[in-house]
Amino acid sequence: MLRVLAVGFSQTGQLSRLMDSTLAPLVEADNIELTRIDLETHREFPFPWSFFKFFDTMPECVYEDAPAIEPDGIADDAEFDLVILSYQTWFLSPCPPIVSFLKSKMAARIIKDKPVITLIGCRNMWLMGQEAIKERLDDLGGRLIDNVALVDEAHAAYTFYSTPIWMLTGNKGPYFNGRVPKAGLTEEQISDASRFGEAIVKQLPDRAPEDNSPMMAGLGAVKISPGLIASEKVAKRNFRLWGGLMRKFGNPDALARKGILIVYFTFLAIIVLTVMPILAVIKKLLTPFTKKKVANQIAYFARPSGEGRELLNTELDDQLEKGTE
Ligand SMILES: Cc1cc2nc3c(=O)[nH]c(=O)nc-3n(C[C@H](O)[C@H](O)[C@H](O)COP(=O)(O)O)c2cc1C
Hints:
By secondary structure, this protein is α/β, with parallel strands linked by helices. The strands form two sheets. A five-stranded parallel sheet has the order 2-1-3-6-7, with helices on both faces. A two-stranded antiparallel sheet has the order 4-5. Helix 1 packs parallel to helix 9 (194-203) and helix 10 packs antiparallel against helix 11. The protein has twelve helices and seven strands. Strand 6, helix 6 and strand 7 (143-151) form a beta-alpha-beta unit. The chain has two domains: 2-224 and 302-323, Flavodoxin domain (Rossmann fold), CATH 3.40.50; 228-297, no CATH class. Flavin mononucleotide binds next to helix 1, strand 4, strand 6 and helix 7.
């Protein structure tokens, strides 16, 4: 019997449903014993969010300041053949509950030398968060063999509106009489995620324990948006700068942090409306000169599963392609 541990956190339930779909083939398989853990949070993250609470969460997310939490439901001597870590990015960083889990003694014991798959469901910016997860897995001695990242299919300009509105009101849309599509992953994206579980069921029994090759190659596990690579790097640096400053004014919810937050939010709005469009034009003009560098970056961030889609059936592939245009 092969033992698989799936650990995850979901606030609105989107990632929970993605896990349900991905894990369904494992639940059905009689040669796999699945243990699923839904993580706790170390402090209240009420949904829908208030404006201040949402942005006040940024500094501790970016600095990965969440205490270790030992998960319930795993025996002290439990061993697993595969670990699946499911999480979202919050402010370009892994969400706090997955950080709490990765800091636990249990995670250190379970992950050491074991193959790990990450499963991400977020708006569209997960590269820097995944870099942080990779570092933590390296420190724990885990081996990342696959990364599946599913992101909103609507155009980034729409999700720049729909995701915060969803977070701040609980209303997923669609908005403006359907001109701005519903926030979040589509039903098809969620149900089609069972292909990842099928790949595990098919390949895990025949794999050598030390095999580091991906199981999701060719299944459209990730798609890298070249335009977001530099933006994520710049934005993460910016979050660290302002987050560090906010932390000097007290702990989360401290009144003094609200003042800095207002200054920061005003700064952010000005940058988004002025500097970002100028940078986008400059980036476009420089494209012919940065092609090779960007291609290398895409290859790097797409690892280990890669962007290949050759194992997807053509009809599904067409639909996904249409969605990302
Ligand atoms: C505080 C907060 C910060 C977020 N920051 C990001 C982000 O940096 N990048 C991104 O793609 N999505 C971001 N999101 C959206 C989440 O990744 C995710 O899509 C959303 O929270 C729904 O996930 P869930 O239903 O599984 O909880 C953020 C959400 C929250 C609540």
